[in-house]
């Protein structure tokens, strides 16, 4: 059944009636995602994009049976929105919002720790299960169905990887953009584990960047538990230490979170590491024995 | 966002953290007045003159000096104000010093020996919780301590449910080998420090050294504070501390235009949408024989105005010998981006360096056609590899 979302997922949009929420909800509906409604406090009872608007997530869940929520709420209110979704019993929360204060995310992480919920993001492009459901802001048409899972901290780099995979004659099962913030709900290792357990996925593309230890943690997990081939890339080989490269989390702090250190660990753990981002598709084709 | 030492100390003091007192000055005359006032307030007989720039290692570069008379205060302040201070963190070009902090002398003799410690508060990304990191080895480079004597670095993780607990503050004071009055002072210091970290939405506090004075007080002698940019909207007072003099003027200009730009030392400029793809593009430039001249994320709306601004910013760097534009158009259609590039090019006039444009995604082929038929000196590509090969080709011509 692929990973996280599929054609049966019932999705609500938090921040539904705002411009971002409206635009991307329309795109998701066009892709075929079951968007069953949305939440904008104070606008409950209205209809938007032919779907009901609710005041609270709890009410939306009760009336529509929603199990997935995507969040377009502005940064100052986003942590609250995530916790509201978790409290209402949503299974998968996808937080697109960029710029949430780290202190708020420390509280979110703590709040979610004893709940049975998966948070993707924040500051991410979302999740897409090719041909079934798009819960995110990515261009859907790039993701042709197939058996390769993608996990990435970056949006456009995910699209780049998916495009190369498709042009190499393969396709995508699910692509997960986990986000580039210092605190995120689902780690690289968590996403890799989902793919390893997914019968619809045969191989994994793992894209990371400088900062933190998530790729190294994932690599060590793969060495111990991996059953499928993994192609990896780390962005930021040329980034100088101490300078933040766009993403709040993309900053080299110590000797172990450089691109070179991460790539070395990944190689030692049996991952097919590519030096150039242009070689992701071709390398996957070689690993899978497909003539590109 | 970074702030100066004097601003960091003022902020800490508001939350009850004991600090080495000081007064900021912008001229040698102000420094002398500051010194007099400081002696009235604290009784200090000597003064430390400290250059205020956003970089560590100031002492090594001659930016921190002790003055034993008011004449020396004036002399040292006139040396330091206006100097270009080079430290291990400023790069070889150094930074112009515009202000000094005249601070009290805290290493006065007394009943016990002074002792220096290290303390920082930061986020442990792998657990999503804050930690207090501390060491008995204060006043030195903490990276060096971590490498040579890692057993002398301690970490205390804070549970967000309850915050810093008194037993944790006591544990820190015990581990630092303190007793009596100094022990008590340290527990107060740690509690106030953590309170300040939380209340200011900081992403890093580094107090090096934390000093135990000869009369057993615990004070912050230096303070490095990094604030969480994402939280500045709820701290207008802290946001106002931003010192644009400390930032690269081109980066400031880019920021105001909504572009995320970081200047680097290479010869190939780049303009990309998305931070991850931007870093990946820089890496690719290097692999194909160039050196990236910058990081530049144009963001989600690569329209003509932004593209033009981005070109103008990249071209301010005289080292740029070629520019690679790499846009993965998803929701944004590539043909519109291509039109933006053509319009921007025409508005700027003659761009003196070769440009390679790689547009991929929605309507990529139409975009390529548009560029190819524009009559401009622009090379176009659709696949990433193709773009990389063209960078290599252009560089070999430039270098020939």
Keywords:
heterodimer, A: 292 residues, alpha/beta, 14 strands, B: 400 residues, alpha+beta, six-stranded antiparallel β-sheet, four-stranded antiparallel β-sheet, 13 helices, 18 strands, 38% helix, 24% strand, elongated
Secondary structure: number of strands of chain A: 14
Strand content of chain B: 15-25%
Quick one: how many beta strands of chain B? 18
Number of helices of chain B: 13
Return the average pLDDT of chain B rounded to an integer.
93
Oligomer: heterodimer
Rg of chain B (C-alpha, Å): 26 Å
Which bin fits the share of residues in helices of chain A? 25-40%
Strand order of the largest sheet of chain A: 3-4-2-1-5-6-7
Which structural category do the helix and sheet elements of chain B fall into? alpha+beta
**Low-confidence runs of chain A:** none
- Unreliable runs of chain B: none
- Terminal residue distance of chain A: 27 Å
Largest sheet of chain A, if any? 7 strands, mixed
Summed over residues and divided by their number, the pLDDT of chain A gives a mean of 95
Describe the structure.
Chain A is an alpha/beta fold and 292 residues long. Chain A is globular and about 55 Å long. In chain A, helix 5 packs across helix 9 and helix 7 (214-225) runs parallel beside helix 8 (259-268). In chain A, strand 3 (47-48) and strand 4 (51-54) form a beta hairpin. The two termini of chain A are 27 Å apart. Chain A contains nine helices and 14 strands. The model of chain A has no long low-confidence stretch (mean pLDDT 95). In chain B, the strands form five sheets. In chain B, strands 7, 8, 9, 10, 11 and 12 form a six-stranded antiparallel β-sheet that branches. Chain B has a four-stranded antiparallel β-sheet with strand order 1-6-2-3, covered by helices on one side. A four-stranded parallel β-sheet of chain B has the order 14-16-17-18, sandwiched between helices. With 400 residues, chain B is an alpha+beta fold. The radius of gyration of chain B is 26 Å and the shape is elongated. Helix content of chain B is 38%, strand content 24%. Chain B has helices at 5-14, 28-42, 70-80, 142-148, 166-175, 180-199, 236-239, 249-256, 275-287, 304-315, 334-348, 364-372, 384-399; strands at residues 22-25, 47-51, 64-67, 84-85, 95-96, 100-104, 115-124, 129-135, 153-157, 202-212, 218-220, 224-227, 260-263, 268-272, 294-297, 322-329, 355-361, 378-381. Chains A and B meet through helix 4 and helix 5 of A and helix 9 and helix 13 of B.
